[in-house]
Amino acid sequence: MTESTALYDIPGPHARRRHLLYGLASTVVILALAGWILYLLFDTDQFTSTKWAPFAYEGIQELLLRGLRNTLKAFAYASVLSLALGGVLAAGRLSEHRAPRWISTLFVEFFRAMPVLVMIFFIFVALKVQPLPALVAGLTLYNGSVLAEVFRTGIHAVARGQGEAAYALGMRKTQVMTYVLVPQAVRAMLPAIISQLVVALKDTSLGFLITYEEFLHAGKLIASNLDYDLPFIPVVLVVSPIYIGMCMLLSWFATWVARRERHSPKTKAVDVAPAEPGTLLPGQQ
Predict the structure, then answer these.
(1) Are 67 and 215 in contact (CB under 8 A)?
(2) Which of 22, 46, 159, 204 has its CA 20 to 30 A from that of 230?
(3) Which of 198, 227, 243, 210 is nearest to 64 (CA)?
(4) Distance between CA 217 and CA 203 in Å, rounded?
(5) Per mean pLDDT, which of 35-44, 172-181, 182-191 is the most reliable?
(6) Which residues have CB under 8 Å from 45's CB, separation 6+?
(7) Which distant-in-sequence residues (6+ apart) come within 8 Å of 281 by Cβ?
(8) Backbone phi, then psi, for 7, in 5-degree steps?
(9) How would DSSP label each residue in 117-178?
(10) Considering only CA atoms, which of 97, 117, 91, 72 is closest in space to residue 210?
């Protein structure tokens, strides 16, 4: 007998056979697409030694490594500042006072809706800021606004009774947030935080539009100085896997954190001293 849940029915033999056919058909289509792309690459002589020999030069390798270091530096600055800004904005949105709550809400809604590239260009061109600060500022404003919503949602995800119990014990709001709500909310927030940092890492590639010498800018500079047809394809085949690998590493870390938090115990046994004769409860004489 097949079982069912509140969301869907367990597929029967015909449905499983149909899903298997769908999976096989999708696999064939994906393999055919990959084969067609490889055919085009071989047909245009993209794997000849002439087009890959420049990457053996020490100068090109140093240029790529310098671009990678600049990318990681921009990502490190943007991620730290985004987390700090997100925490401040989340605290403002959770405030009981109307003025900081409204200001934080307007800030979050405005910069979350503004395209990242527009902010970076405005800071770089209109405010005449150097490329690295302009890139970091644009990434911080956008990702900090998104992370503020992540933090606020994580706090609200904690059972309401947790905060009420803490207030009943006489804790102030700062103590409730620090010792009760935030430690429990971190469990739910970590995967979303790391996923947003993946977005910040990918958006560092926008720096090449404002002449910041990051990894993509280094690839563009190399391709523009090669003297054969379609020079960008070998460069893309070198740069793209590194970008994808870094993003996959962060995504894997988010999955690992989520799995670790899911299987970790929520409570830990604590040794309690045995009651001694004559011990009185508070209020007893």
Answers:
(1) yes
(2) 204
(3) 243
(4) 13
(5) 35-44
(6) 51
(7) none
(8) -100, -35
(9) HHHHHIIIIIS---HHHHHHHHHHHHHHHHHHHHHHHHHHHS-HHHHHHHHHTT--HHHHII
(10) 117
Residues 201, 246 contacting (CB under 8 angstroms): yes
The count of other CB atoms within 10 Å of the CB of residue 187 is: 18
* Nearest Cα residue to 83 out of 196, 206, 178: 196
Q: Which two tokens stand for residue 238?
A: 């070198």
Tokens (6 digits) for 96: 């009981």
What pLDDT digit, counting tens, does each position of 225-281 carry?
877 776 788 888 888 899 889 888 888 887 787 677 666 655 444 454 555 555 554
Residue type, 277: P
Task: Name which of 130-139, 154-163, 211-220, 231-240 the model is least confident about.
Answer: 154-163
Q: Is the pLDDT of residue 187 over 80?
A: no
Smallest CA-to-CA distance from 243 within 219, 222, 223, 224 is with 219
- CA distances from residue 88 to 34, 113, 186 in whole angstroms, order as listed: 46, 19, 16
Instruction: Measure the CA–CA gap between 263 and 190, rounded to whole angstroms.
Output: 14
Q: For residues 13 and 20, what is the distance between their CA atoms, to the nearest angstrom? A: 10
CA–CA gap between residue 151 and residue 155 (Å, rounded): 6
Q: Count, in order, helices (H) and strands (E) of the chain.
A: 11, 0
